[in-house]
Write a structure and sequence with these properties.
The complex is a heterodimer. Chain A is mainly beta. Chain A contains no helices and eleven strands. In chain A, a hairpin with a 3-residue loop joins strand 5 and strand 6. Chain A is globular and about 35 Å long. The relative contact order of chain A is 0.34. Chain B is mainly β. In chain B, a hairpin with a 5-residue loop joins strand 4 and strand 5. Chain B is globular, with a radius of gyration of 13 Å. The chains are: A mainly beta, B mainly beta. Chains A and B meet through strand 4, strand 5 and strand 10 of A and strand 5 and strand 10 of B.
Chain lengths: ~110, ~120
């Protein structure tokens, strides 16, 4: 099973600033990496797939990078609606695995 | 509009069984793999298992292998999760999700399973 590790666990950033979230896979997952945003009381929402492609309707301030084992999600200028928990997921192999999440909170 | 609606959750005693269903609409259900993902309140996401569009490939997390079974009926646009020998640690919100071969594009709102005596 591939273990996905996200860091930091919590990130405090002010609105308008940049946030960078990280995700590491225990072995290569190629570019088969997705990022999800989850707000309280809601189902997860796909934000990035294929490590760097934005899902439908996702603003351009969201960007993803990486391949192999190291990945990042960057939100260039944080808006109030961006504060949430973010999960990375590898879908290169079954069992599909998620990271434990990074909580992005308002500083 | 793509919709996934889970049902079948509830309170069940340890060791008993429960069957969850997920009804898809707004897309050609038979064209996509679908998955079950669970989440304990305040905790992270755990993939439970998934099934390919034609039911040829079915996979499970180690934590449920041998106890849970996934199936689908494309004629009914439905996905199922048969859960046997339930344990307290299976208590969670269970989501179904549509796989676009590049992540899970659509999710239902979940159905809550509570395993307790």
């Amino acid at each position: 099973e591939i273990v996905m590790t996200q860091f930091p666990a919590t990130l405090s950033v002010s609105p308008g600033e940049r946030a960078t979230l990280s995700c590491r896979a225990s072995q290569s997952v190629s570019s088969n990496l997705a990022w999800y945003q989850q707000k309280r009381g809601q189902a997860p929402r796909l934000v990035i797939y294929g490590a760097s492609s934005r899902a439908t309707g996702v603003p351009a301030r969201f960007s993803g990078r990486g391949s192999g084992t190291e990945f990042t999600l960057t939100i260039s200028s944080l808006q109030s609606e961006d504060f949430a928990v973010y999960y990375c997921q590898q879908y290169n192999y079954w069992p599909i695995t998620f990271g434990q999440g990074t909580r992005l909170e308002i500083k | 509009e793509v919709q996934l609606v889970e049902s079948g959750g509830g309170l069940v005693q340890p060791g008993r069984s429960l069957r969850l269903s997920c009804a898809g609409s707004g897309f050609t259900f038979a064209d996509y793999a679908v998955h079950w993902v669970r989440q304990t309140p305040g905790k992270g996401l755990e993939w439970v298992g998934g099934i390919s569009w034609n039911s040829v490939s079915i996979g499970y997390a180690d934590s449920v292998k041998g106890r849970f079974s996934i199936s689908r009926d494309n004629a009914k646009n439905s996905l199922y999760l048969q859960m046997n020998s339930l344990r307290a640690e299976d208590s969670a919100l269970y989501y179904c999700a549509k796989d676009i071969y590049n992540g899970f594009e659509s999710w239902g709102q979940g159905t809550l399973v509570t395993v307790s005596s």
